[in-house]
Specification:
By secondary structure, this protein is mostly helical. It has four helices and three strands. A three-stranded antiparallel beta sheet has the order 2-1-3, with helices on one face. Strand 1 and strand 2 (236-245) form a beta hairpin.
Length: 286
């Protein structure tokens, strides 16, 4: 763009110079036309007429002639006019050149300013795009992390729920198994009680206590006492309590001592009849 403007300025200057030359030529021709033309010079022929006059009368000298100054003044004025016009044209051209230089400098400064502004705009846009991309990447990473955490929580919840369900099923199955076993034990105990095996087991314990009993002097015939015995597996007696009894305190104490001495108690013929808390009736044979 700056080169086209420079060409235009040069063209304008050349056009001004050409027109100034044309105007100067026209003015010169006009001054030449208006200026009075000099009279043609004639050769002065001096003739001396000799008269026979007295010697005292001398001839008069011819009048001096001066060249016309009109043409010289017109030429000088035209030259001054031409010089003034040429100077004005040069000043105009110089002014135009300065204006064009100032305009080119302003255009260049504006172009540089626009270039800097465009570079700054691009830098800002790139920074904004980069920040946006980083924000989107960060948001995507956070969303993925949240999704992964939520998925893990859900998986843990399902696994815990499944484990609880399995545990509940196992506990239910265990309770059902225990209940069936308890029912079987009770049914077995009922069967053992009905066929006299429990009474036989209790009689064996009572006989063991009676053999270990030391009759006190206050014991009378027909003693019948209810004895509550606590034992551990193997028949070891851990506690004895004499309940209803028709004997005195010495009799009751002697029975309790006999129960401890009878330890370990005999095992039942059927292991299902074993009970930690067993109750027997102590009625020694008189």
């Amino acid at each position: 763009m700056s080169e086209r403007r420079s060409d235009r300025v040069v063209s304008v200057i050349l056009s001004i110079l050409i027109h100034a030359a044309i105007v100067g030529a026209l003015l010169w021709g006009w001054w030449q036309y208006r200026a009075p033309k000099p009279a043609p010079q004639t050769l002065a022929i001096e003739a001396n007429v000799v008269h026979e006059q007295p010697q005292s009368a001398a001839p008069a000298p011819p009048a001096p002639t001066s060249p016309p100054a009109v043409d010289t003044q017109a030429e000088q004025k035209a030259a001054e006019q031409k010089a003034a016009e040429q100077k004005a044209a040069e000043q105009k051209a110089e002014q135009l050149k300065r204006e064009q230089a100032e305009k080119d400098a302003a255009d260049k400064a504006e172009a540089e300013r626009q270039a800097r502004a465009e570079a700054e705009r691009k830098a800002v846009a790139e920074a904004a795009a980069k920040a946006e991309a980083e924000a989107q990447a960060k948001a995507a990473a956070e969303a993925k992390a949240k999704a992964d955490a939520a998925a893990k929580v859900e998986a843990d919840r399902k696994a815990q729920q499944l484990a609880q369900q399995r545990k509940a099923e196992q506990e239910r199955a265990q309770r059902e198994a225990d209940l069936r076993a308890q029912l079987q034990v009770e049914e077995h105990l009922d069967a053992a009680r009905s066929n006299g095996a429990l009474a036989q087991y209790q009689a064996m314990i009572a006989a063991r206590i009676e053999r270990a009993w030391i009759r006190p002097p206050s014991a009378h015939a027909g003693i019948s006492c209810r004895v509550n015995i606590t034992q551990v597996p193997g028949g070891v007696v851990t506690a004895v309590q004499v309940g209803s009894c028709n004997g005195d305190e010495a009799v009751r104490q002697s029975i309790a001592d006999a129960a401890y001495r009878a330890s370990p108690l005999p095992a039942p013929s059927d292991p299902a009849l074993f009970d930690r808390d067993v109750v027997v009736t102590f009625a020694p044979h008189d």
